[in-house]
Amino acid sequence: MTALDERTAALPVPDLSDAALAAVTAELAATAETYDRSGAVPEAGIAAVHRAGLLTATVARRHGGPGVSLLDAARILVALGEGDPSVALITANTLNAHQGQAAAATWPEATYAEILRRSVHEPVLINAVRAEPELGAPARGGLPATVARRTRDGWSLSGRKAYATGGTALAHHVVWAVTDDEPRVGHLLVPADAPGISWVETWDHLGLRASNTHDVVYDDVALPLDAFVEIPRGDDGVYRDPAAVADPASLGHPALYVGVARAARAAFVRYVRERVPTALGRPIAETDRIRTVAGEIDAHVAQAETLLYGALLRAGSGETSHLPQLSLLKVQIAHSAITAVETAVAALGNPALTRHLPFERHLRDVLCVRVHPPQADAAFLDAGRRLLSRPTPQEENPR
Predict the structure, then answer these.
(1) What CATH number does the domain located at 3-123 have?
(2) Taking the complete model, does pTM exceed 0.85, yes or no?
(3) Residue 3 — φ and ψ, nearest 5°?
(4) At what angle do helices 326-348 and 288-316 cross, to 10 degrees?
(5) Cα distance between residue 325 and residue 339, in whole Å
C-alpha cells in the first residue's frame, strides 16, 4: 500500500451544475469589492471555493480526487473569475499544480499524500513561484538566479522571486531554480512554513489587488534531496520553460478573465435597466443605442467562450490539429475579454469610471490577462514563422 492509499478521508466531488457554480460566483462577488479595496488575502472567497470542493477538483482519481476534465476546470475558473478574479487566480494556480501531479506524479509521494489529507479539512494553496526581479517572466527565456545548493542531507535554496501569487496564504511553493552541481534546472517543492522564507510586500497593482502577488525571499532554506524535480532538456540540450509552451491545461488562466467579461456584461445589463434619465423618461436599456452596445458586448463574450470551450472540446475529443494554435487562441480569448469590458465602459462614460460601480474594477482586473504567457507579440511571431515555413500547395504537389 502506498502513502497515497492511506488517506483518512476521500476528497469531495464538487457539484459542477450551472446553478451550483452560480451560487459560488454570487458568494465571491459579495466580498470582491471589499478585498479589492483592502488588498488583503481574500479568505472568505477561498473558504467558499474550498467548501464547494473546487480547490481539489483536478486531483487525479487515482489519488482519491474527482479528476474533472479540463473543460470542467475551465468552467470552474470562469465562474470564479465572474465572482472574484483574485480568488480565481489563486485557485487556478492550485488546480494547475494538481493537474501537473495528475499528468506525472513527480513530487514525493508522502508529501503529496499529506497535502491531500490536509485538503479535506482546509484550503491548501499551491503556486509555481518562477518570476524574478532581474530576469522578469521566465517565458521570455533565461535561467533563474535562484540557486539550490547540494548539502550533505539535501538542498539549500536561496534567491528572491517576484509575483508569487497567494503570498502568505500559500501552503507550498513550487520554486524554479538552478542547481550548483552540473548545473540542472528544475522545481523544488517548498513548504511555506519552512525556516528561511520571508515576504516583501511589493504588490500594489492596478488589478487583481487581492491576489497577494508579493515578492518572496528564500535564505538558505533546507530541503530534502527528493524535493528537486529536474525539467528535462530538449533534444538540443537546452532547457525549455514549461510555462512558455501552450497546452490545453494552460487555458485555465484565460478562463478566469472570461469570467470577468461575464461580470461586466451582467453589471451593464443591471445598470442600463435601472438608469432612467429624466429627459428620456424610461430606462436607457430601451434605446437602440444601448441595445446595440449590449449586443456588441455579448458578441465579444460569446467569442471568448467559444474559443475557450471549443479548443478544450476539440482536445477532449482527441483532435490535435489546433494544438499548435493554442498560443494564438489564448491571445484572442484575452482580446475578446478585454474588448467586452472596454465596450461597456466606453458606452457608459463617467458612471463606468466611478468606484461606486463595479465597471472600473472589472476593467482593471481584465487588463491583467495580458501578463500571462504567451504575450501577443511572441505568439504572433511564432505563428507567423510556422505559417510562412509551410510549403505551398504547389510545392507539396509539383506538376
Answers:
(1) 1.10.540.10
(2) yes
(3) -60, -35
(4) 160
(5) 21
